[in-house]
Amino acid sequence: MTDALRIFHFGWPYLRRYWFRFVVGVFFGFIFGLSNGLTLGGVYLMLNRLDDPAHVQKVTDAARQEAAAREAQESPTMHGLHSAMKEINERLYLAVDPWLPLVHRNLDWKQVLGGLLLMPLLSGFRGLMSYATTYLMAWAGQRISNDIKEDLFRKINSLSLDFFHRSTTAELMSRINDDTSAVNSCLRLGLSDLVKEPSTIFCLFIGLLAMDWKLTIIALAFAPLCIIPTRVISRKIKAQGRQDNVASINQAGIAMESFQNVRVTKAYELGNEHAKLFRTAGDRANRFLLKTVQARATLNPIIETLNAFGMGAVLLYAIWANIGVKILGSFLLALVMFFTPFKKLGSIQVYFTQAGLATERLMAIFKLQPSVREPEHPVALSAFTNSLDFRDVSFSYGDGAVLDHLNLSLRRGQRLGLAGESGSGKSSLINLIFRFYDPTSGQIEIDGKPINTAALADLRFHLALVSQDILLFNTTVAENIAFGKIGATREEIIIAAREAYAHDFITALPQGYDTQLGERGLRLSGGQRQRIAIARAFVRNAPILVLDEATASLDSQSEAEVQKAIDHLAENRTVICVAHRLSTLRSMDQILVLEKGRVIEQGHFDELLGQRGVFTAMAARQSIYPQAAA
Predict the structure, then answer these.
(1) What is the pLDDT at residue 378?
(2) pLDDT tens-place string over residues 139-162
(3) Which of 196, 231, 301, 513 ranks highest by number of CB atoms within 10 Å?
(4) What are phi and psi of 374, to 5 degrees?
(5) Binned average pLDDT, 10 residues per bin, the chain of 630 residues
(6) How does strand 441-446 pair with strand 387-396?
(7) Helical (H) or strand (E) element with 267
(8) Given CA atoms 86, 88, 94, 96 in this order, what sign does their dihedral have?
(9) Of 15, 2, 13, which is closest to residue 191 (Cα–Cα)?
(10) 211-261 pLDDT, tens per residue?
């Protein structure tokens, strides 16, 4: 029940979007339950007609006697209503009678046709209702699942960078695919059966009582015992489901890491080692999965065994009470039909258990809030005209200060270089400018306005990033460039490519700007990928350009080509350039040398070399200033 309530609470906002088809599906589910009763009634009717030649007369006489008995007890209005209903039923029965065979009556074509078509028509109607409710529930479930996926995708993307550092890609993909799939299965299969099977049980229960209420009580005496194994197995499935999910995520993570680092995998011949790790993780996942399957497979035999006790008790009572074969045969058929939904309801509990676990994990993500939040009343940032300022900014990831009371002012049009050893705080400074994180103390301002008072989209519209990690998407060249400015025209894309010196090699590709680049753009060289990334920054046309080790991973020829494009991109823009390769900082107006989050040296390139300090030592190690080595 807890799982069902959690799923309903989570799914209701999505379910009500498709309420009409859902309600129609529920309606057809109830009609399906009624059709089971009609099927049982058809069998019972035929058995009576094959056993008793006076069946028709008895039915009509019984109807008249019942009407006469009610006449003495009911008001004139109710009596008139019941009389009309009885008359309709009697006429309907007499109208159908010539189309159904009757023992000791000569068969004609009507009876042969009716006898052949009665059960197929009832079964066909039952199947049609089952199809209708299953399809409509699946229709709603599939759309709900897709809506949840979209909202989950948006939610994950809205979370701050620290969330992605805590989570693996495999785990996030499992949340999007596996957990939403579990919810979908519950809605598509579990909810469909949850509508059909209880209505079937109700209709057949009424039919069983109508045939013999004593037999019904005896048969159902063991039914409540089915609740115990269902609850026990559901708890076991929930416990195994948590472990199975973790093991499956680990296996998926191994595959993703191996594929994403395929060059290293092949270079070091790690394929077999990764395969062994993958197999080990898969064996662990399989153990938990098989235990879940084992628990589910145990449920049906237990329920069938308990139900068989009821059938055995019915047979014993029937022999003791000398109940006729006609009644007993109809009752046993109804009992078999009655117990089948109970087995399905046991499976429904499994669906709800698995979906409950998935919902628990999904709700945990939806409850997360980004550590970097949008301001409630954002202040508009006008065109960048004055300066970008860090005012006593400190920052920590939680393990000590990464930036320590940093102050700097970058005027519009100025070029600022950042140098320092790994861990000195260069990348953290860039992260703060884009508000991937917020400072622990102090504030950053653009034209005197704190950036945390502006909408994130407005802030980032003023910024363009070209980094060492060249990320291209598995789409066309034109679309990759256009990601820099949503809605960019083809003309703007081509102009940006020309400015980035990328137009010539793009037009030489098989489909030019419409060439699919493949995953991460690996069909292109490093220099070509970087120039497309620069074209993306060109089309954005942001006033502040951030270069984060933009040429660090390139060879000398590619670096020269890319540096030419970068220099062109930097014209008439405010530039922040992070560089490990110090030669790229020669054109900077000012360079800051960071160490443990503090500025320890600053000045122009040649000025810093002349100071014979940390910058000079770094340059010497790169053979830029050999005299310092002496």
Answers:
(1) 87
(2) 888 888 889 888 988 888 888 888
(3) 196
(4) -70, 140
(5) 73 85 86 80 72 60 54 51 59 73 78 83 86 86 87 88 82 84 77 76 78 78 70 67 66 69 63 76 72 68 74 78 73 76 71 80 88 87 87 85 88 88 86 89 90 89 82 84 87 87 87 80 76 85 83 64 76 85 84 88 87 85 60
(6) antiparallel
(7) helix 262-267
(8) negative
(9) 15
(10) 777 877 877 777 777 667 766 766 666 666 666 666 677 767 777 667 666
Q: Which two tokens stand for residue 175?
A: 């949340």
pLDDT score of 53: 63
Matching residue, tokens 């310092």? 628
Residues 6 or more apart whose CB falls under 8 angstroms from that of 21 comprise 136, 139, 140
Enumerate domains of the chain plus CATH numbers. Answer: 2-53+102-367 (1.20.1560.10), 387-629 (3.40.50.300)
CB-CB neighbours of 148 under 10 Å = 23
Of the candidates 346, 25, 21, 441, the one whose C-alpha atom is nearest the C-alpha of residue 195 is 25
Q: Pairing mode, if any, of strands 590-595 and 598-603? A: antiparallel
Contact between 543 and 412 (Cβ < 8 Å): yes
Residue type, 350: V
Distance CA 487, CA 323 (A): 80
C-alpha span between 475 and 6 (Å, rounded): 39
Using CA of residue 507, residue 511, residue 516, residue 521, what is the dihedral sign? negative
Q: How is residue 627 written in tokens?
A: 């005299």
In a 3-state reduction of DSSP, which class is residue 485?
coil
Look up tokens 């400074």; give the residue: 429
Give the phi and the psi of residue 522 in degrees, each rounded to 5.
Answer: -70, -5
DSSP 487: T
Which tokens sit at 573?
Answer: 């823009």
The strand pairing partners of 465, in sequence order, are 546
Task: Report residue 419 CA to chain centroid gap.
Answer: 43
Q: Roughly what angle, to the nearest 10 degrees, separates helices 271-321 and 227-260?
A: 160
- Taking only Cα atoms into account, the Rg of the chain, rounded to an integer number of angstroms, comes to 38
pTM of the model: 0.74
Torsion 38-42-44-49 (CA) sign: positive
Structure tokens at 433: 């400018």
In the block, residue with structure tokens 């508000």: 435
Strand 463-467 vs strand 544-548: parallel, antiparallel, or unpaired? parallel
Q: How far is the C-alpha of 31 from the C-alpha of 126, rounded, in Å?
A: 8
| 8 Å CB contact between 579 and 585 | yes
Residue 247 to residue 277: CA distance in whole angstroms = 12
The alpha-helical segments, DSSP class H, found in 382-489 are: 426-433, 456-461, 477-482
